[in-house]
Amino acid sequence: MSLDQFQRALTDLTASPALCRAVRREPALLSQLYALSPLEQDRLADIAASNGMEANCMIYRANRLAPVALNCPDLCAALGDDLNRLISAYWYAEPTTNVHFLVETERFCQFLEERDDLSPQARKALSREHRKVRDRLAATAAMADRDAFAVARVMPPA
Length: 158
Description:
The protein starts with a helix and ends with a helix. By secondary structure, the protein is mainly alpha-helical. The protein has helices spanning 3-15, 17-25, 29-33, 38-49, 51-71, 73-79, 82-93, 101-113, 120-145, 150-154. It has 2 domains: 3-49, no CATH class; 65-145, no CATH class. It is built from 10 helices and no strands.
């Protein structure tokens, strides 16, 4: 058994509806991409084909979209129908997420800054909201530099 390869394949399937569809069509694709035992390959093919996998992929994508939607709502609105294409391209380029909402949003904004296919309206929203995200990150970093428990360590309990 190759647990690390099994886990990698499972996370890749969860993150990629396209990979799930490809594995449903051709289960042997798993053995081309990962070093799996026949049992692991069969299990993963069954998982990819299961009814719940589509929901699993949606939940994963919703969790990756949430930071951007919450921190950059005007940008999302300005991107309109291009949001799906652009966020999918970002997720492909950056498969590893950051659970800190501001960091994940900063990464997406930086990804968009480097593109030349945004509308003027989207570019304006990006500039405005990216600045807010950077300001919030700076404030978070400043707060992290403060030691809230320093006084408690110096002063004995009353």
